Amino acid sequence: MPTRASSHPFGVPLAKPVDEVPAGTLTTLRRKARDCHACPLWRYGTQTVFGEGPATARVMLIGEQPGLHEDREGVPFVGPAGQLLDRALGEAGLDRAMLYLTNTVKHFKYEARGTAKLHKRANAAEQAACRMWLAAELLRVQPRLVVGLGAMAAQTMFGNAFRITRERGAWRPLGERVRGLATWHPSAVLRMPEEARRHQAFAELVADLRAVAEALEGLG
């Protein structure tokens, strides 16, 4: 049976409410999420893309939703955006193997254009339906530092008024002994049309991840 949770209990630092949090280990949650039909997105993706990383990770990175490559492999951040994230993590001094990586939404949503599948943003209802899985991951892992990559994750953590363009990189308390910040999603960096802006945004992403590395060292 699911466990009842408030919108912001320790270990579930989300600004948006979650009525129920599925119980179980990460392995159990991953198995349960495979059969989730809480919203129509299960009809889009070939599989649920659950989070990946140590159950004791002190840092959790939350993205937005899987893309085509993640949908095929069933692992978060393995496509071009994931490759850019790996590069940024390396420059910031963070070891991906020590982090827990997940997404706000666990299924790939797309619009078919001939044989191509073009990424389409999950709507508010789809995000809300999936939030219980993110809450369950937070409750199980209980990270000390939470990083929102992109607007969807940032607003799930900090509320709809949050704007990456003016508030990225600033630490905010998320609960007892938990704090978070938001920064650019790697896919947003890749989509920027001007090369100079892409370089600047990537440098900002690396700087924010360096702040995470420094905070992690400070945890002892």
Task: Report on the architecture of this protein.
InterPro entries: UDG_Type-4/5, Ura-DNA_glyco_family4, Uracil-DNA_glycosylase-like, Uracil-DNA_glycosylase-like_sf. It comes from Fulvimonas yonginensis. Keywords: 4Fe-4S, DNA damage, DNA repair, Hydrolase, Iron, Iron-sulfur, Metal-binding. Residues 50-210 form the Uracil-DNA glycosylase-like domain. Belongs to the uracil-DNA glycosylase (UDG) superfamily. Type 4 (UDGa) family. With 220 residues, the chain is of the alpha/beta class. It is built from 8 helices and 9 strands. The longest helix is centred in the C-terminal third of the chain and has 24 residues, at 195-218. It has helices at 26-34, 68-73, 80-92, 124-141, 151-158, 164-167, 186-191, 195-218; strands at residues 3-4, 20-21, 59-63, 100-103, 110-113, 116-119, 145-149, 172-175, 178-183. Strands 4-3-7-9-8 form a 5-stranded mixed β-sheet, with helices on both faces. The protein is 40% helix and 16% strand. Mean pLDDT is 91; it is low at 1-11. The chain has one domain (3-218): Uracil-DNA Glycosylase, subunit E, CATH 3.40.470.
Task: From the structure above, extract its key features.
220 residues; 8 helices; 40% helix; Uracil-DNA_glycosylase-like_sf; Ura-DNA_glyco_family4; DNA damage
